[in-house]
DNA sequence: GACTCACTAGAGTATATACTCTAATAATAG
DNA sequence: CTATTATTAGAGTATATACTCTAGTGAGTC
């Protein structure tokens, strides 16, 4: 593997493990047993590394949330979207942790992330529309759909922070992907009141699969 | 005012303005035109300052969210709770920004914050119960109420981060309390499907007061 | 075999950061 | 007034951090 790619991979790994704030460029170089000079040959600075990782993350999520327009949406699709988005959050989990600082230090990232958010919100809205078309949920006025999509986004992107801050005992690093995916339970909670009788039971059963094992 | 209190006040102000990560103890001392030595006479370290500020925040929110058991809940109460919580979030807005890092650096804070979260979740659940008792919303099974309370908490505590990362153009510092309180619109969105016919219109009108002026 | 060029090592640097130490001054108690 | 205690200044320190600079190395090309 190319050194450049190794740097990106190691950075992501260390960022996820210890948090971006606690990982220096020297740490990354040491972890790879390369020199700092070598690292700085491949990247102008730390922000550049983070920006590149963001581009990967963005590409992944954009790929998952590419909603096909030509066919109607099934419950399997919905499950796939939810699972995929939480997989993405997991793989790049350092990112949302220090988001505000990262955006403050890199305007290019700020702009791209804002667009990314809006694209995600658009996809969520579209999923709601197609769920209504498919008869899974009752159709709702556009205003409500927009506000609901935003709430879904808030729950999805901040579920991990909640787990890390409210749940974990002494350190926040023993979080598992399984626990993270209990966020799907929370997201589906938002949709309960809008389910059609035809699909109610199926969706409730789906939701049940993600119920947290230990109640808070 | 005592130097100790001035340090706490200046720290809070600087943290809110620039983010905890960008504010050093030397900055705080310089801002107050006192020596670093003086600052360290009053506080053992930076974590201690942050912990003290958290205790204030905690006290404030606990005070606001002290739900009276002996009388039923009105819409005015609900408005008060929502307004107060967002006021608190505003006054201590640095806190949720770097939350994970702060908790990782201070186990005492981690424990206290976890308890604080659970108390808040309890209060939200209680508010839901009392709203049902008052006939504002339909009563719901306890499981659903718990999951809903958690979603409310997620929306409340992360609304600001959303505004700062997705909304603001070039820097995230031009956020106003008014914009922050549009979070109330999002919170009330969660409750719409559960409103009783008797209160539906009133709550919808209340929600309307917080509608964002410019749609995203 | 000289030359190029992508790549790498590793020492080094300017700056920042959290925090310490000593000495001095103000406030207070007896 | 004196002794003690609380408070403050300000220089200083150890360490960390992002990043630079110079001197290569090694694989391929003509």
Spans of chain A with pLDDT under 50 lasting ≥5 residues? none
| Largest sheet composition of chain A | none
- Domain count of chain A: the total is 2
The SSE string of chain A, one letter per element, is HHHHHHHHHHHH
Q: What is the fourth-level CATH superfamily of the largest domain in chain A?
A: Tetracycline Repressor, domain 2
**CATH domain class of the largest domain in chain A:** Mainly Alpha
Count of helical stretches of chain A? 12
| Helix/strand class of chain A | mainly alpha
Indicate the percent of residues in helices of chain A.
Answer: over 70%
Which pair of protein chains has the largest interface, and what are the residue counts? A-B, 46 and 46 residues
Number of extended strands of chain A? 0
Describe the oligomeric state of these chains in a short phrase: homodimer
Percent strand of chain A: under 5%
Radius of gyration of chain A: 19 Å
**Mean of the pLDDT scores of chain A?**
93
What distance separates the N and C termini of chain A? Answer: 44 Å
- At CATH level 2, the architecture of the largest domain in chain A is Orthogonal Bundle
CATH topology of the largest domain in chain A: Tetracycline Repressor, domain 2
Shape of chain A: elongated
């Amino acid at each position: 593997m190319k050194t450049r790619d190794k740097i990106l991979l190691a950075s992501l790994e260390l960022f996820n493990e210890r948090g971006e704030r606690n990982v220096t460029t020297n740490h990354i170089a040491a972890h790879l047993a390369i020199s700092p000079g070598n690292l700085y040959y491949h990247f102008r600075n730390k922000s550049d590394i983070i920006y590149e990782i963001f581009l990967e993350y963005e590409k992944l999520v954009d790929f998952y949330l590419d909603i096909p327009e030509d066919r109607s949406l099934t419950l399997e699709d919905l499950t796939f979207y939810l699972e995929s988005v939480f997989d993405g959050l997991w793989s790049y989990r350092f990112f949302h942790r220090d988001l505000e600082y990262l955006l403050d230090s890199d305007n290019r990232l700020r702009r791209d992330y804002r667009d990314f958010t809006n694209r995600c919100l658009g996809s969520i809205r579209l999923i709601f529309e197609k769920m209504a078309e498919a008869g899974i949920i009752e159709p709702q006025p556009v205003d409500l759909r927009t506000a609901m999509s935003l709430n879904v986004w808030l729950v999805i992107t901040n579920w991990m922070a909640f787990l890390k801050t409210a749940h974990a005992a002494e350190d926040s690093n023993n979080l598992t992907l399984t626990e993270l995916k209990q966020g799907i339970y929370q997201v589906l909670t938002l949709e309960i009141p809008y389910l059609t009788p035809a699909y109610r039971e199926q969706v409730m059963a789906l939701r049940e699969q993600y119920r947290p094992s230990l109640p808070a």
